[in-house]
Amino acid sequence: MSAEATNPEAHPEARPELRRRGRSRIDLRRLGRAALLGPTARDRLPDAIGHVAEAHRAHHPDADLSLLRRAYLLAESSHRGQMRKSGEPYITHPLAVTLILAELGAETTTLTASLLHDTVEDTDVTLDQVRAEFGDEVCFIVDGVTKVEKIDYGAAAEPETFRKMLVATGNDVRVMSIKLADRLHNMRTLGVMRPEKQARIAKVTRDVLIPLAERLGVQALKTELEDLVFAILHPEEYESTRALIAAHAGERDPLPGIADSVRTVLREAGISAEVQVRPRHFVSVHRIARSRGELRGSDFGRILVLVGENADCYAVLGELHTCFTPVVSEFKDFIATPKFNLYQSLHTAVAVPEGYVAEVIVRTRQMHRVAEAGVVALGNPYATATPDAGADPDEERVDPTRPGWLSRLLDWQQSAPDPDTFWSVLREELAQDREITVFRADGGTLGLPAGASCIDAAYAQHGAAAHGCIGARVNGRLASLSSPLSDGDTVQLLLAQDASSGPAAEWLEHARTPAARIAISSWLEAHPDRAMATTTAARAPLSVVGARGGGANAVTDLPDATVRLAGCCTPVPPDAVAGFLVRGGAVTVHRVQCAAVAQMRAVGRTSVAVHWRATADCRVTLRAESFGRPHLLADLTEAIARQGVEVVSATVDPPVEQRVRHTYTLQLPDAAVLPALMRAMRDVPGVYDVGRA
């Protein structure tokens, strides 16, 4: 890749984290001179990477720096003579990228690969040389970064190049960590390029790399990239925001006083905590200004409270809500329910006597590391997955992200039918900034974007087998496939056994995940005749009437009385029954638990003793509740016939939300077969309940 540079002081206002840390901006020209002069002794670190060593030792005091020294010497000698567009020695670029990662707490292997990340592409150094000198792990990362660096961010933003980026990141997330740091340094030094090229690179950064930084939890890189993109793509809004921040700097800031009050409260409660004021970055101030209108002094930053243990976070929260007035609507617990990018914290807001409302973030120091650096803070995320030194570096690696969104991206990108579909769906997927976790019936979990439906859950769990999904139970209750899911729901998906079953065209209206939409669209394109069919169109009830009627097998002591089995409860032997005299001298027979029995007695109907004949045959009416699908009526009728039961009549009601009711009047050769018959009907795919009418 060609890392191009300009004035290193470009957009200094867009880097508030430098002011927070109190670390001066690195002088790239001084580093360039040091790189050209080289080290003064073999056994000491080159002066040019002194800042890298200092930042690395701050996070890893026992780190072996000899690997960094060798990597720097190889990189410096390989890039010697190459210059950036700004006139600085090219070695300043990998040094700056490595320093960014060192400040985030990256482990030694990542920093070594970062120093070498351009050598294989831009110099005569080969991967075999890197492997021989630094081992398989460093070689694996450098190879992945080299593939990513070959991406051409041209005007067309070729979608296939982003496939390569995702695959490289899926093999090792440290590849994307280096890519993000590389992009940050290039964005800091973008001013020598033509405005149209600046805008093109900024748009790609906004659409893909910033969302990926968010997904990987690397907030320190994400926020600065947002500010730099903001300055390029929206210069007027950027200048107005800069003016707002500058005006606030000349006024009294209430946040330090509020922070002092918080320190006092926690000290008196015996809670050991570090309290800081965290200024908002430019884009955050801009968003707050758009949502709230006129800004007050406490809107330009937040209070950060760092403690040692998880329990201390809730203790701090209790003291804050006791000693200040809490704004209940602002409370969020991301410790109990972490975000999909590893983020954990407690968020709240409190009102102070001076009339200000201050937002407060409470987290442990480890949570703070992860909040700032995301997957970079994990060190080597594959250390436990590949414990053997001789593990094959080409094997697919375990996704260290939670709950595995990167694996999902890799899965559906393989199924995307064309580059344009992949590009549009990728942007939509990355735009999803919130995820939910739902529980499967077997105890597993599924990570889905907010707003996902049962259709999305079906394809996430079953892949192509979800084409045959006919319904779902959400939290134990039947639900249509279009039903949206909420965080914490339990979903049981019901699949048809018929291999010819397929999705309906309207499923696309309710699918939110790329995997579901791509799979449904592909199936519909492959089955155009089935795509035109629908099982949800309104239609009149379908009735089927058998050849013979059959008489009642209940008898009464009244001579010549006509006996009728009630249709409301369809009694059969050996049900306990009650008879009542009705108009025309007929006797109607109900099961004793039928609600109509109480009504008959209430209106004074004459009770008549009835009993069953010795013959075993009887008539019964059953209702089957099912999800609509092709051939369901035929399958139910076949299941009934296999039990030796005759269908007297059948009625199918119009579907409602993909659910269909079948009502059958059946002549049973023996009442004893009724339980087996009902079980056989329930076993038909798509049928979820069978009961007496």
How would you describe this protein?
- The chain is an alpha+beta fold and 693 residues long.
- The protein is built from 26 helices and 22 strands.
- Strands 1, 2, 3, 4, 5 and 6 form a 6-stranded mixed β-sheet that branches. The chain has a 5-stranded mixed β-sheet with strand order 8-7-11-9-10, with helices on one face. It has a 5-stranded antiparallel β-sheet with strand order 12-20-21-19-22, with helices on one face.
- α4 (66-79) packs parallel to α6 (108-115), α5 packs antiparallel against α6 (108-115) and α11 (173-188) packs antiparallel against α12.
- The chain is elongated and about 115 Å long.
- Residues 1-26, 28-43, 152-157, 385-391 and 533-551 have low confidence and may be disordered.
Shape, per Cα inertia axes? elongated
Give the low-pLDDT segments. Answer: 1-26, 28-43, 152-157, 385-391, 533-551
Tally of helical segments: 26
Largest sheet: 6 strands, mixed
In short:
It contains 26 helices and 22 strands.
Which tags fit this structure?
six-stranded mixed β-sheet, single chain, alpha+beta, 26 helices, disordered N terminus, elongated, 693 residues, five-stranded mixed β-sheet, 22 strands
How are the secondary structure elements laid out?
Layout lengths: L15 H6 L6 H10 L12 H10 L6 H14 L12 H13 L3 H8 L3 H4 L4 H8 L1 H14 L9 H13 L1 H16 L6 H21 L3 H15 L1 H15 L5 H14 L5 E6 L2 H11 L8 E7 L2 H14 L1 E2 L5 E2 L12 E6 L5 E8 H9 L31 H11 L3 H13 L3 E6 L4 E5 L4 H9 L6 E6 L2 E3 L10 E6 L18 H13 L1 H4 L10 E4 L8 E3 L6 E3 L11 E5 L5 E5 L3 H8 L4 E2 L1 E3 L5 E10 L4 H11 L3 E7 L6 E10 L5 H9 L4 E6 L1
Parallel strand pairs: 2-6, 7-11, 14-16
Antiparallel strand pairs: 1-2, 3-5, 4-5, 5-6, 7-8, 9-10, 9-11, 12-20, 13-18, 15-16, 15-17, 19-21, 19-22, 20-21
Helix pairs in contact: 3-5, 4-6, 5-6, 5-11, 6-9, 8-9, 9-10, 9-11, 10-11, 10-19, 10-20, 11-12, 11-13, 12-13, 12-20, 13-14, 14-16, 19-22
